[in-house]
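$ fold --in a.seq
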Amino acid sequence: MTEVRRPEPASRSRGEETVYQAWERFVQGEDDIRGVRPEIAISWHRCRDQYRVDPHLTEAPVALAEVDHALEHDVVFAELGFRAASLAHEVGNIGGIVTITDASGRVLAQWGDQATRTAAAKANLAPWFCWSEGATGTNGMGTALMAYTPVMIRGAEHWCRAFHDWTCAGVAVRDAVTRESVAALNISCWRSELPTTAAAWLGNAATMTQRILRRRARDDGAELMAAFNHTRSRSKAALAAVDPAGRVVLADDTAGVLLGIPGSTPAPDPAVRWKPELPEFIQAAKYAAKQAARNPGWLGSTQIFTRLANEPTAISFRPVFLSGHLIGNLVSFGVSEGDPLPRTGGDGPALAQPHRMVATRDNRMVLLRLPEVSFAQSDGNDVWLSTDQGRLRSASPGLDRLETELSASGFLRVHRQYVVNLGRIREVERRCKGEMFLVMDDQEQTMVPVSRRNAPAVRRALAI
């Protein structure tokens, strides 16, 4: 192999100098981000104000020794490893390296140019070190885990000054059902540019790998439907089949009404699931899945408030396995059997509620008090906020995440595209076909639609 000469650090171009100057201001506490791409500015905000990563960090920390992940994710790691190794020679020839991480940002493997790997080792860009944003700041792997599309991080766009000589491109592989990150694939070059084919290759590798997860989700969904039909024929209790994330594959008419989802209607594809608008139910389902994974003979029960009842309803969880692998639970309503679940519905501390929201406008970060936000609207993977300062792009990468962050702060999901501030509703308009719209108190008096399945929760929240 022909030896690749390492270029010396070049003087920054005008654009690179603009980003570096913005970085210097931002790490000192200013919010002026002129010349910085929005996705980078949002990442910087997380690093500075949420994770409090030291911008003068010189190496990544050691990853946690034990990280929980689903069994099928091992197949994803193997598939990504195969695809990364197959490109190692090509990437190595241009002085680059390829890495894969798990969902926590822990580097699992690395391939590529030996000289670059030696330089990377000085920053702990190597297996068993953590490159999540929360640990190491803005970087190709960690930022990809937070994004829904491939990301490119160039030079001073890295949060830590010690990594400004690197250019990285990363992409996350996401679960077909929950859309949560499973792994990240990344290409890095030291003091040189990435090949123009890097982004296309990463996107293709992620797409091919996600097909494995989608096939597995489809098989699991079909098995949960079969278990549902078998139990339904022998029981009169309202019944639902849910996956480990609390998403519903199938529910009978009664359970559908209680959960606020279509009853006796399977999702269009077994890999697609209905999401109940009941956070307490989802938390209970996740807890039940963890218990059943540890003990296959486990049964559990708890009580939750459902859509139409003023009193809590008893629910019981019975695990369903496929080839020894937990694929979900059958949930019976009005039945109480097995071990009681904690009333919190989880086995960890409650999440701290935010006191403000972060958005971007032109070249600046905008810090918003919650009462300033009227509603949030999704547009693909972006979220836009209607605020007293106008329409702003949210720093949150998805409406589901925003809903989780604000659910205990007076915000409610009313439609698959809208989360509203209950305190900013001025009027409720009902139309002849039962349609409901919320008239917000913003300057435009925006009318936000309420979906049929969310209408009961809205009526209960507004006491109407």
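$ fold --in b.seq
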Amino acid sequence: MTPESPKPSCHEVVIGKWMPSDVDRSVRRVSAYGTITNIINGGVECWMGSDANGADRIGFYKRYYDILNVSYGDHLDCYEQKPF
């Protein structure tokens, strides 16, 4: 719930309160699920291309959204996002 500078909080991203700056957009950070992964674990998973852990997480995310019949949108990974 509380942002840790320079990162926004995950909650701000989820509710659409965080708006990416020009710098964020230039390193492919957008207000989407992939940015939440970036906030939590960006230094380990982001900006390094696809990996099995990220693919598994996205698969679980999509599975539950499918069960709830909710659209999950775009930008589900942080593979091409620079970490905060």
